[in-house]
Amino acid sequence: MSLQLSRRQLIGAGLTGGVALTGAGTVLTAPYADAAPAGDLFTLGVASGDPLPDGVVLWTRLAPSPLDPDGRGGMADRVRPVAWQVAADPEFRRVVRRGVEVARPEWGHSVHAEVSGLEPGREYWYRFRVGDQVSPVGRTKTAPALGAPLAAAVFGFVSCQNFPAGYFTALRHAAEDQLDAMLHLGDYIYEGAGASQLPGRAHSPAAEIFTLADYRVRHAQYKTDPDLQAAHASTPFISVPDDHEVENNWAGDISQVDTEPDQDPAVFRRRRADAFKALYENMPLRRASMPVGPDMQLYRRIRYGDLLDFSMIDTRQYRDDQLEACEGDCAGRNDPSRTILGEQQKAWLVEGLASSQATWQIVGNQSITFDNDTVPGAGVDYSEDNWNGYAGERRSVYSQIHEAGVQNLVIVTGDAHASAASDLRVDFNDTSSPVIGTEFLGTSITSGGNGSDQSNRTRAWLSENPHIKFANNNRGYQRVRVSPELLQVDYQVVDAVTTPDAPVRTRATLTVEAGRPGIAGVDD
After folding, report:
1. 239: helix, coil or strand?
2. What does the pLDDT read at residue 263?
3. How many CB atoms are located within 10 Å of the residue 224 CB?
């Protein structure tokens, strides 16, 4: 919550001696009179997110003891005023915005400062202060003005960062790119027990997590990773969760752990409420995404001038349960009444794509939409957990997009722990069916271990699915360079995640030409 604090309120909040009041607002000066807790308050770093033309969300969370089992991070049960600054230069000689937020114990002493009044399409630097402690400095960037001509943009997309599986080296390399924005497409944390052969990488707590305290500790453990901190401090994130932020393969109010037929959905909803609360506390999300119990508004649209519209979707809260024992091209997966989006979100997505004035429509999506048969030779097999298990609704969405004349649809996807690029057809079984867009599947940061150039699955994807033009089984991140004429995806890979500081290389670059749906070129 942003505050306009009077001198009396500042004194009551313990800010006397630490904040001077001027016509421009609060100014960071001497240490606050009310001493801060012992220890480094900013162990979890800083972050920014959801950029708009006039501002961003700035985030931090006070946690001198981030792994304390009670989930309080070493903080007492009291509010803490936190001052913040935004500057036009990294040395903070030109501070352009400043303010004070209250970090509250009921929200894990997290801070979400929704800054406004900034200039569109430019870099800024930010920091926080409590007492005499100053946070690390973060870099962020606002979105361009709505509808403004934009010659180029560079964004990234990532997913699936399993802490015990390896080091987040790919995120360090992504941080060095200083992107305009980073789309995080889910599995930011993993909820399982998570033993590890790597020093210091076993999960804390050392068991599957179910309570608010557990989720807070798990998020804090991930946030202590220096490579993840570097990525957040370098680039504004636009994030949506997938399943592991709550529970593997959950669907709506249905738990995949509590599988007894008489299981009360309220039990899982309580777990989801705790998971969503911890998610909000630990991510740079706007108040519009603050959860209300087990419900959280996650699908949203962020515009970048006349070049890009990002439509971030949520494929967990509103989906029907996954099919069981759906062998081959079963009738259930083609049932158009089964949904992965829910009626309201589906209408929002299609209408937004159809009415977009931007050159490129980017959909930030959690799991594969293209058909991906994994059986070599005769027969087919599809996943029930991704869009392949909801092929009837997928065909409806694709058909509406095609009928609306959407030209430059690009879906970016996570979850599968491998990379692939595919043309998108209304009917994947008919090679004459119209191509309505392109999907780029991004590999994991660490999930699945070191990986390799190819696996049996990626080889089957290429041999059995003619719409798939590229596949790879390395780990890494994806960098997307966009102009009004061309969209290029660089698959940036590391050869090992079990060894720190692995070098990065460009495994392949794929291109899409504006006005021509589908993949135009593969530089493999």
Report:
1. strand
2. 73
3. 17
- pLDDT tens string 175-188: 999 999 999 999 99
What integer is the mean pLDDT of 189-218? 97
Joined tokens for residue 17: 């001696």
**229 vs 34, 392, 505, CA distance in Å?**
28, 40, 22
Q: Are the C-beta atoms of residues 220 and 210 closer than 8 Å to each other?
A: no
- DSSP secondary structure, 86-135, as one string: EESSTT-SSEEEEEEEEE-GGGTTEEEEE--SPPTT-EEEEEEEETTEEP
User: Residue 262's pLDDT is what?
Assistant: 62
**Residue indicated by tokens 């497409």:** 185
Mean pLDDT of the chain: 92
The 8-class DSSP code of residue 136 comes to: P
Residues whose CB falls within 8 Å of the CB of residue 325, separated by 6 or more in sequence, listed in order: none
Region for residue 472 given its phi and psi (left: phi exceeds 0; alpha: psi -120 to 50; beta: otherwise): beta
Q: Please give the structure tokens belonging to residue 324.
A: 């069981």
Position 35 scores a pLDDT of 58
With CA atoms as reference, report the closest residue to 56 among 136, 134, 157, 143.
143
Q: How large is the angle between the packed helices 265-281 and 212-223, nearest 10 degrees?
A: 30
Amino acid at 234: S
pLDDT tens-digit series, residues 407-446: 999 999 999 999 999 999 999 999 999 999 999 999 999 9
Whether residue 95 contacts residue 120, with contact meaning beta carbons closer than 8 Å, is answered with: no
Q: What is the pLDDT of residues 293-350, one digit of tens each?
A: 999 999 999 999 999 999 999 999 999 999 987 777 787 889 999 999 999 999 999 9
- Token look-up 């305290």 returns 213
CA pair distance 58, 223, nearest whole angstrom: 15
